[in-house]
Amino acid sequence: MHTRTFSVGIFLACFLYFCGSQPVFAKKMYRWVDENGETIFSDQVPPEDAQYRRESLNEKGRVLEVTEQAKTKEQLAIDNRLQALKKAQEKIVAQQAANDKVLLSTFRNLKDMEASLYATLQSLDAQRKVAQGNLKRVENQLESQQKKAAELERNGKKVPQTLLDEIKQTEAQIQVAYAEINKQIEKKNRAKAEFEADIERFKFLTQENTDPSKASDKMAENKTADEIGLYACETDALCAKAWAGAHEFIKAHATTPIDTDTDKLIMGRAPATDSDLSLSVSKIEDENKKYQLFLDIRCRESSLGVELCASQKVRDLRSAFRPYIESAVGK
Fold first, then answer.
1. pTM of structure
2. Cα–Cα distance, 89 to 150 (Å, whole number)
3. pLDDT higher at 156 or 205
């Protein structure tokens, strides 16, 4: 088939000549702009121009369909990352809502929560006392074994290998006992911190023991936003300022450099060490066609990295994001 291709000037001339006397096109046509900025009209799209954004036109010149410009591998990778971040954001928001529902349905008031905290701490203290009793027992056992070995040496006798092995085993048991005690202390501290956070959340949701249904929606949104690292743009102009602030936030708090920087994603390099914090901020459109900036924090995939991402340090970093951006927008 012969392909009819026109520049925009020729096409417009033809359009004016034929307009009103006969259809502009004998069949469907395509319109696109090439790399030189020239608008092309043709009844076929050459393979070398297939990557450009193009419009399909009917015989009256009206747009029937739009085919967006083909994306590069890098652009597709960024799109996939944005989709993953959007899902992560939705998951965190849903989890927060579920946690709030459980919190409000489990406890009637602050006294219930304080009583539950007291019972939990008492139980953990009891477990710690058991661990301390085990430690005392093995320490006494080690003392007895060491005395026996010392007595043999004073009498000029060789200490049996079995006794030496028993001493090593008991020393190892002591280390295990100490580790268990430290574990119980950490569990108590963690339980107390979680309960205190839940108590503050309960106070907020119930607005100091008033009806939870009367809590301020705006305040609730801000509280949730602080917990997940979310900033909602009110206007495009403010969003541009917020985006600039997001750059500064990442530079100030990330330990890895930025390796992806587009109009919708600022992404830090993957964590290389157990202490690394890689920060990313994505610009995601919500159901109301407004943009939100979502902070994502990545740690190394190791036991210490997982512990870091679950730490208070990271929670504080998320909570600082929205106030930081609001401060940047207000400058």
1. 0.46
2. 64
3. 156
